[in-house]
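Entry, Tuesday afternoon. Goal for today is a structural model of the target with zinc ion bound, before we commit to ordering more compound. Inputs were pasted exactly as handed over by J.K., no edits. I checked the ligand SMILES twice against the vendor sheet because last time a stereocentre got dropped in transcription.
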Amino acid sequence: MAIKKACTTKNNTLENSKKNANFKIIKKKIVIKNARPDGESICIPYIRIYGEGPKVAIIGTQHGDEFFSIAIIDEFLKLNSSTKADLTVFPLANPSAFNISNRRSPIDNQDMNRKWPGKKNSTITSRMCYHIFKTIKDCDYILDLHNGNKNIRDAPQIRVHKSNRKQTENLCKYLGIDFFINHSDTKHTLVEELHAIGKIAICIEIGEGRRMDNFYLAKGTDIIKKFIDYATNPSVAKEKTKHIDEEKIKKIHASKSGLFIPSEKALGKKTKNIGTLVNISDFSEKKITLKKSHKLMSLCVGGVVSKGELLARYVE
Ligand SMILES: [Zn+2]
């Protein structure tokens, strides 16, 4: 799947899918004039799929180095699922950060997910937030998609905020995601600001930001479908959700530099062997293991790693 630079050509990254009666993709864009130091505009592409049902928004790639979310949203749109929901989709919320594959904007060095709900006359990142927020604030359900950092693949995990934990609990269980993490750094995140105006909003981390991964591509599109199903027909999950406090997440770092070979099947499960660290000078091997009760939530994609580099995150 080719992901082109955003807004540098007339067509954006999304192909116009075959249309059916229930799923008409209308391409739109927000144009922010005089956005760059050279006076150029920034355009933020988005999609409207009009429906009679609840208003749902999907947001991807607030962080410019997390473009796997664009692929997930693109795959979802290609499915042409019939839905009654009224959808507003921003596959690429932060085009200028995406163009340099960076988390932050190259113009003002700000992190978009700490600038919501944005201001009309402020730094460019804040202005982008203002216009996107204005476009989605009438939506009832909002899904904010993120991905793992460089070389770290995340099993689907939900970051919830204390302010709206009760309301989102059922939804999280409905999505079938086991890692339900109480997020502590929430000031001016999109989800927090949406909670403040009474919306149901969650942030999901899935896969690795810079890599296309068929398994998590399918999982991600399934999560979007389920999220829309839930918005259309909210149901009560029977099982109780187990919360994980962010401080309880444990990390494993490489004890020395070498070649890390991850165990493909380990992610998201209770597992003992998560991979092998090979010493390149003498080819000695060290197995990286967890205890039986530990559950692996993020794993290094493998390759050459430096001493101290993050290999895995897990919870007990
Ligand atoms: Zn992110």
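The domain at 249-315 is CATH 2.40.50.100 (OB fold (Dihydrolipoamide Acetyltransferase, E2P)).
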